[in-house]
Amino acid sequence: MPHRRPCTTVVRDAALAATAVLLLAACTTLAPAPEPLSMPPDPQVAQSRAIGEVAVTATILTDDQARQHFGIDLGSHGLQAVWLSVRNGSPFRFWFLKGALEPDFYSADEAASVLRDHAPSETFERMRQEMRDQSMRLMLPSRTISDGFIYVPRAEGGRYLDVRLMRDVYEADSAMRANPLSADGLPRELRFGFALRLPDGEFDYERMDTERTYAGRELPDLDLEQLRAALEQLPCCTTDAAGTRNGDPLNVAIVADAPQMLAALSRSDWSFTHRISAKTIARELGAVLSGDAYPVAPVSSLYVFGRSHDIALQRARHALALRNHMRLWLAPFRHQGRQVWVGQVSRDIGIKLTTTSVTLATHVIDPQVDTTREYLLHGLMASGHVARFGFVRGGALSTPPQPRRNLGNDPYYSDGLRLVVVVA
């Protein structure tokens, strides 16, 4: 005799089944539908450059903008969308060198595959095709406007874009052979540089206002010899907040207005840093415990001119314990009309616990501080941003047998020279 289930059981099971269907339906609609944005989404943030009849506009989508435009969260998957528009008004075609902008760029299909597990199955093919269709083309015909996305690894705070366009070599050579007197003077390669920022409310550059640092003061404009004397008369080192104990050595000076300096450092792969806040402290402690990277981690406060650093930058490695970092202060003088920044650069090689920092941890610096000073110089030279450089005295002279110590009691030694870079 067949077993008859109670009506209440049937109803309950039906309700559970209906709930399961609803949950499954909800799971398949977690990704919001794309709401394509007009490009660039924020014209005030986008930057444009032109060389002759060729103009380039560039911007980076924020995580929120990318989520709205593509209907999926690129940022949480380590991706970022760079948008370019090239107006080629010349009679020549150009090739866009995507690998020069970012050697580790993602193809559209590769980016889509990274996102696949979090895209509804019924919409994945559509998303992949849209990412293909919206990719920046490589060949840029004459008298056209080409625009599209390059999918790149996510960078916090901003990035430097080196947009390089090459003339079609065969086309140019053929034109020259046909008429040797028809040289047009247009370079074979056009390069456009963009230093783009992505503020999130936590970066120290978001609060930097160089117009207010010395508001109401007439800063002296020094010639070269006066600059040398002024830099040599600076204190040897940074200090604590009270100015009673010496910290890391002041070993670098950069002559450039803030936008040019930050562009040069960004192009040399220096990234911005977060300020110390409850949010960033929590993230830093998590990175310390997990060993994960935090490429924009805050730096502790050191003091020059009676104040903490105006801006800090770093070149991070795979873990928080390892990075090069630099603090910079705007000096109370100028050189040939340009701002002068004095700073401290060193390499972190470890982390130790401490009760003297709000983060409860501090970095251990490489005792050979001069090698990090040279590292900064070589990076700026390699990126073509050094007009002149030299060295002045005034730093913290010390030797391995008799090292100096910073506020964290880490030993270091130096030839006592300060690097001076005039940015090109």
Walk me through the structure:
With 424 residues, this protein is an alpha+beta fold. The chain is 27% helix and 32% strand. The chain contains eleven helices and 23 strands. The strands form six sheets. Strands 9, 12, 13, 16, 17, 18, 19, 20 and 23 form a nine-stranded mixed β-sheet that branches. Helix 4 (108-115) packs antiparallel against helix 5.
Key structural traits:
alpha+beta, 9-stranded mixed beta sheet, 23 strands, disordered N terminus, 4-stranded antiparallel beta sheet
Major sheet, described briefly?
A: 9 strands, mixed
Gap between N and C termini, in Å? Answer: 94 Å
Q: Name the poorly predicted regions.
A: 1-29
* Helix content bin: 25-40%
Q: What proportion strand?
A: 25-35%
Radius of gyration: 27 Å
**Structural class, from secondary structure content?**
alpha+beta
Q: What would you say about this model in short?
A:
The protein starts with 6 loop residues before the first helix and ends with a strand. It is 27% helix and 32% strand.
Write the SSE topology.
Layout: H1 7-27, E1 47-51, E2 54-60, H2 63-70, E3 79-88, E4 94-96, H3 98-101, H4 108-115, H5 121-133, E5 139-140, E6 144-153, E7 157-167, H6 169-178, E8 189-198, H7 210-213, E9 221-222, H8 224-232, E10 237-239, E11 246-249, E12 252-255, H9 258-267, E13 271-272, H10 278-290, E14 303-304, E15 307-308, E16 311-316, E17 323-335, E18 338-353, E19 361-365, H11 369-382, E20 386-392, E21 404-405, E22 411-412, E23 418-423
Parallel strand pairs: 9-17, 12-23
Antiparallel strand pairs: 1-2, 2-3, 3-6, 4-5, 4-7, 7-8, 10-11, 12-18, 13-16, 14-15, 16-17, 17-18, 18-19, 20-23, 21-22
Helix pairs in contact: 4-5
